[in-house]
Design goal:
HypE (chains A, B); 60s Ribosomal Protein L30, Chain: A; 10 helices; 14 strands; Hydrogenase maturation protein (chains A, B); PurM-like_C_dom (chains A, B); Phosphoribosyl-aminoimidazole Synthetase, Chain A, domain 2; homodimer; globular; PurM-like_N (chains A, B); 30% helix; 366 residues; 7-stranded mixed β-sheet
Chain lengths: 366, 366
């Protein structure tokens, strides 16, 4: 029988501090914006706090979704993928999308990059007292449309309201489940020397779209967020190349962060070619003015794949036939050294290290 | 091929308002605390906004979890239950528990009342800049302990950070999945005249514990939250009585709200006997001083079941052998009239209507 809290012995207070040795290894004493950035501080928080505390191999895999064992499915040769994301983007609406599309696409994409077909989403809303019902309705409407277009159903939900000032307008959490029907072995640990690095199009659009929407730039140009679901593109990619080695969507922390995770987990070097990386002119311009690097900007509809060299061209050709992959390109390759690092051959003929983001480039980007 | 947002036609702006006829039926123009109370305003928001917009039969069932069809499982005779809840309780720590236990037990319980064995949870954290790592560590530690005691694994997660003042310390979302292995038919629509109403113990503890922890009462007594996982108790109940008709945990809005939902969905009357409802003396005292009604106070480890009369005694006997059901009791019965209503025979010999909560009794209770 499960031990419940009612079994607590007399004098065994619920306020006694439980053992938290893992806490001692956290260098920071307070949460900073960097802990949400997608970079090193966030990784430390996740590794040293959550993964240590919740201590199980599925979480410790540190993928963007858990592939969970269910007896009945195993017998069918399928697996269940499960993921969650909270969305706190500011502003709620921006060119190309809103928190509603992000909440649907982001969770779909975390499922898709495991090779899963997304099926069902949950929707947990935290609402600030005083939020206009019209604003909430527009967000919900965007979620409805995004879910319908992607073929997923929002089947369960929860609504909480907090006092004015205790939250900023509205936050959304979506969790998602999907079925992996193919025999895939996608993992951050599978990059091999000789493999090729692919992305499905222009990077950095979402990050710049949010900056422009916040009026933090006095620029005339409009850049739209790239928010889009990627599961159908991934389906196509897996048809052409069932043996995709690594696959992840490049959200917070951008392409640079995903590639650093691949390089570290696989113990390989990733060599990028700057001239091959697709970046919209307007995004490049904004980055130059602001000293931002498109490699670190968030995307909401871009993935990075590492695939066997012999299939790279056919997979890119196939991706280019898909609306979500028109500007797909080979952007680099995997080598043996320098182990664990990401390097880039710059347009000026040099070679630079593309490190993991340490601080916080842009808060509340998703 | 899925239509993606990239297919948008030129001139088809992403800022055009999508159709939201359902919005016109919302009477309120702004979110109030009542929309999070568990009562009528929240139900209207859910029915007229979320259920209309997300439009699918699983969500429209308005249960606390969705039972989703998965081909491989159906062939095994099992089903998957999926649920989510966000937690915004204030304060984070209180006698008997914390937001950490609530986040684990609450989601376990939403699965349990469908007859599911909870297996996997997700954890989405929204953190306020400046939160102490020690506080976060204590919450995570409580989640770890609660999950371990209940036999569930937290397998996937997400962390967002917002600026100081954009959230109140920390909010947690957990989603959960579980497997329904038995042939159960639990539904809010299955209460029949002649059935008996059961609860597993003292009601109102959690609500009063939070009030005391907020120092809103100048009372000496300490009441501990009843936060506890209920899946093992439900397992036992289903062993004794596989044909439980209705089953729900009585959280926000309390026992009164759950029973009103059963009465409305089943088109029956529920008659309670006040003297039979277990309420702790300290809770009764606090309620008398403050004019609160224990029937409307939140619980975090109490369920309400409606079962066939012939099995009521044996199910209660079995429940009393379980640590989470020691004070189980029959508290009322189902009759035909007045259709859709909940009535209570008071200790003074009268009969009163136990209506749904309209306003907001206690904000941020979970």
């Amino acid at each position: 029988m499960t031990r419940t809290l009612l079994d607590r012995k007399p004098g065994e207070s619920s306020e006694a501090k439980p053992p938290t040795q893992w806490l001692d290894r956290m260098r920071d004493k307070h949460i900073t914006m960097a802990h949400g950035s997608g970079g090193k501080a966030m990784r430390e928080l996740i590794e040293r706090l959550f993964v240590e505390a919740f201590d199980n191999p599925l979480l410790a895999a540190m993928e963007d979704q858990a592939v969970v064992p269910l007896e009945g499915l195993r017998q069918q040769g399928t697996k269940l993928a499960f993921t969650t994301d909270s969305y706190v983007v500011n502003p709620l609406f921006f060119p190309g999308g809103s928190i509603g599309e992000l909440a649907v696409h982001g969770t779909i994409n975390d499922l898709a990059v495991s090779g899963a077909t997304p099926l069902f989403l949950s929707c947990g809303m935290i609402l600030e007292e005083g939020l206009s019902i019209d604003t909430l309705g527009q967000v919900v409407s965007r979620m409805r449309e995004a879910a319908a277009l992607a073929g997923v159903s929002i089947v369960t939900g929860d609504t909480k309201v907090v006092e004015r000032g205790a939250a900023d307008k509205l936050f959304v959490n979506t969790a998602g489940i999907g079925i992996i029907q193919r025999d895939v072995a996608i993992s951050a640990r599978r990059a091999c020397p000789g493999d090729v690095v692919i992305t499905n199009g222009n990077i950095g659009d979402h990050g710049v779209a949010i900056l422009l929407a916040r009026n933090e730039l006095a620029l005339e140009s409009t850049v739209e967020s790239d928010t889009q679901p990627l599961h159908d593109l991934v389906r196509l990619m897996l048809e052409v190349c069932p043996d995709i080695h690594c696959l992840r969507d490049a959200t917070r922390g951008g392409v640079a962060t995903v590639l650093n995770e691949f390089a570290a987990a696989s113990q390989v070097a990733i060599h990028l070619v700057e001239a091959a990386i697709p970046v919209r002119e307007s995004v490049r311009g904004a980055c130059e003015i602001l000293g931002l690097d498109p490699l670190y900007l968030a995307n909401e509809g871009k993935l990075v794949a590492i695939v066997p060299r012999e299939q790279a061209d056919s997979i890119v050709d196939a991706m280019r036939t898909h609306p979500a992959g028109r500007d797909s390109a080979i952007i680099g390759e995997v080598k043996e050294t320098p182990n664990g690092a990401v390097l880039m051959a710059t347009a000026f003929g040099g070679l630079r290290v593309v490190d993991t983001l340490v601080g916080d480039q842009l808060p509340r980007i998703c």
